[in-house]
Each structure stands twice: as structure tokens, then as C-alpha cells.
Amino acid sequence: MAERLLVGALKGGKNTKIVTLNGKKITKMPSALEKLSGLKILALQNNLIPKVCPEISALTQLTTLNLGNNLLEEVPEELKYLTSLKKLHLFRNRIRRFVPEACDGLQNLVLLNLNNNLLTSLPQEIGRLRSLLYLTMNYNQLASIPKELCLLENLSELHLNYNQLICIPGEIKFLKKLQKLLLARNNIEGLPEGICDLTSLRILDIAGNIVQIFPPQFQNLKLKEFYCEGNPLLLRQPVHAVIQDEVWSLQEIASRFVMNQLAENNPLLMQAVEHYPQIKDIISRGKECAICGKSFVTTWLECVEFVPPSKNWKISRNLQLIPLQKLICSYKCFNHRGPDLFGIAQV
To answer: Would the pTM of this model clear 0.85, i.e. be above it?
Structure first.
């Protein structure tokens, strides 16, 4: 059956636009495909193909390639020749490796489906796929994602459910067009503050992680759907705790003075700091006190404020309050906190 279909396609030559050979138990990609230079859609799903043939490089007009549910072990270099490709389906293979060179020619790719593979990492070169709108990599073994992925400024959907992620890079703030971010069933301990800059984000799923607290301003996201069940979120259960001694290092005292003087545009310090890279590095890690608004480096106490989720959010069942991180610079400020701000204690 597969041979007869292929023969029929070959008779059409350059005029053949679509070849569908799904579920034909094919064990080798037909090298004769190189004769179909006008091909637009090639579907080879549900076969036994272990490798992409070199002849595929001739299919420069191809816009859709479906190799889902085969036996591929890598995202191959040959794909770089498919300069017209817009949709690439590689789900349910055995892919462990993403050949960096594969990204070189895929400048028009808008959809990449790598669900259900064995990927443990992604190459930095994935940042070259500048036209990408939809990237889905559910059910892999990714422990991290490269910050270069956050250069995909057109990305609308990012699916990373069921991986082994422990964190999300702060550079995610650059994905200004991201509308859907799915991170369910990973090992993520916290979300970066940059996630609050995603003004287009409408759906966020972090269910089944180990998040306890959310970054400041998180409640300002314009979400339509938010799922966070299965996380050990901090609860509003006040307990008595021993007050910490307020003892700062000399470096902390100096850093606070310098940062607050810079905030007032002290011309002498602004000029002097340029000559001391070490000082610039220290104050670059500065934070702002949630009470007094002044800058500091060492957090005296991490606090939590419980706020209700937006009425516009479709949320996880029983989520009544969202714990937001608030950092305090001193006992003096902590003593002047509002009634809804609590210190985080180990109980």
C-alpha cells in the first residue's frame, strides 16, 4: 500500500503537494522523496522510522512535516535545509538530542511539537527560531531551559508539563507576547519576578510543583485561568516566633548607604561607583523594602502578604488567598507593617 501511494505521488513529480503515509509500518524514510521538490505537506506519522534521510534536504518548499510516533533519537541536522517549514511534529519518538545546527534554517517555523520524548536539555541555538509561536515539550526530562529560549519574542504558547524543571529563568520577562505558560508536574520551587512583566499572559498552570510563595505584583497579572493545586502554598496560620537580632555587617551598612544615596542622584557617588566593579556587582543585587521603600542587600526577614486572587481569574478549587513575597529591611520596618503582613516562620 505504501509503495503504491508513493509511486502515485512520484508520477505527479513537482506538481505533487501532499504525501500522506501514516501508519504504513515504514522502517526507512523513502529517499525517492527528493524528486518531489514541490512538496508542501509530508505526513509519516505512526511508522517505524529511526532516521531522517539526507534526501529530505531537497524539499525546500515543505511547510508541514509530521514524523510523530516513530523511532527517531535526535532532532537531525538535515532539517536546516527545510527553509519553508512552518510546522514540525516530532512527538512520541525517542529523541534525546537536539542537534544545534538543526535550528539554522528553520527561520519560518511557527510550531514545534516535541511532546513525549527523552530530552534532558535544549541547545542555546533554539533561540534562533525567531518565528516560533507554539513550542510544546510536555513529557520529557528537561531539568532546565536555556535563557536563550526567552529570546523567542513572538512565542505565544510554551508547554513544559511533566518535566523535571526546578526553576524558570528570570529572562522569561522578555516573552512579551506569551499568552499560555504550562508548567504542571515539575519540581519548580518558585517563580521569578520577571513573570509579573508578562502582560499578555492569560493562562498559567503550575499545578503539582513545590511553590510556596509568589513574587510581588503577581496578583496584577491579567490572567483568565490560573491553576496551582498540589503546591505547598504558605497558609495564613499565625504562630509566635522569636524576634531576630538586628545586626548588620559593615558591608551591608555601606551598601545601604551607597544605594540610597544613588537613589537621590548623589553626583559624587554616581561617578565614584563607575570605578569599582565589585561595588557595582554588590548593589546590583539590591532589593527594595516593602515598608519603607529603601534599598538593601541582605534581607532581614522574608514576609508574606495574603491577597485574594483577581475576580477575573478562573482558578484552582479552594484557592482563596495568594501568598505574595514581601522583603523587609529591618525590625523597625517590620514593627510598622500592616495587619496583613506576616513574617515567615519555620514551624
So the answer is: yes
Q: What is the pLDDT of residues 120-167, one digit of tens each?
A: 999 999 999 999 999 999 999 999 999 999 999 999 999 999 999 999
Question: DSSP state, 330?
Answer: -
Q: Could you tell me the end-to-end alpha-carbon distance of the chain, in angstroms, rounded to an integer?
A: 68
Kindly list the strands in the beta sheet with 134-136, ordered across the sheet, starting from the edge strand earlier in the chain.
Answer: 18-20, 41-43, 64-66, 87-89, 111-113, 134-136, 157-159, 180-182, 203-205, 225-227, 314-315
Give the residue carrying C-alpha cell 523535571. 164
Q: What is the DSSP letter of 331?
A: H
At 133 the three-state DSSP class reads: coil
Q: Which of 147, 141, 43, 53 is nearest to 95 (CA)?
A: 141
Which residues have a Cβ under 8 Å from the Cβ of 312 and sit 6 or more positions away?
222, 223, 224
Residue pair 77/100 in contact by the 8 Å Cβ criterion: no
* Residues of the chain under the 50 pLDDT cut: 1, 5, 7, 347
Integer Cα distance of 291 and 300 in angstroms: 12
Residues 345 and 337: their CA atoms lie apart, in Å, by 16
Spatial CA neighbour of 297 closest among 258, 342, 261: 258
